[in-house]
Amino acid sequence: MINTLKHQYLAVIWAILVLILCDMPLENVANEVPVFEGMDKLVHTGFFFVLTVLLFYGKIRQQRSYTFRILTIVKILLITASLGAGIEILQWKVFTYRSADIWDFFTDMVGVGMGIFGYIFLHRTGHEKFL
Fold first, then answer.
1. Distance from the Cα of residue 45 to its chain's centroid
2. In this predicted structure, what is the pLDDT of residue 28?
3. How many CB atoms lie within 10 A of CB 64?
4. Which end of the chain has fewer surrounding CB within 10 Å, N or C?
């Protein structure tokens, strides 16, 4: 467990940051950042893409190799889906000033899919020799 956390510290920090940012009120942010329709969905996609990449990075460092494992993909998919669903449940039940949205969860999973695609693509093209 400690060995896993030692390699996953960046992903843990990022997950905590995502949790905080997704549950804080937005009235002050909207005044300072240019907002366009769909920006929230783009942010969710980016948050979870980065989280997925950091989880894969930590796993690769922990294994000290770039071996392809389906179990790793399934674990990361479950972890990120749990975090995404947890954020939406918190927005629905606890942080009522935020609105829970199934499309936010969908875009979370789009970001995860992009990260998984990148992992599989790099594995299939032989980039493991550069690690």
1. 8
2. 61
3. 9
4. N
Which of 13, 17, 18, 14 shows the shortest CA–CA distance to 107? Answer: 18
Q: State the Cα–Cα distance between residues 101 and 39, nearest whole angstrom.
A: 14
**pLDDT grade for 13, boundaries at 50, 70 and 90:** very high
Report the domain count for the chain.
1
37 vs 127, more confident:
37
What the block records as the tokens of 19 is: 């949790």
Using CA atoms, how far residue 45 sits from 48, 49, 84, 90, 123, in Å, is: 5, 6, 11, 18, 22
- For tokens 């980039």, the residue is 127
The residue with tokens 């093209």 is: 125
Q: Work out the burial of residue 96: count CB atoms within 10 Å of its CB; fewer than 13 is exposed, 13-18 middle, 19 or more buried.
A: exposed
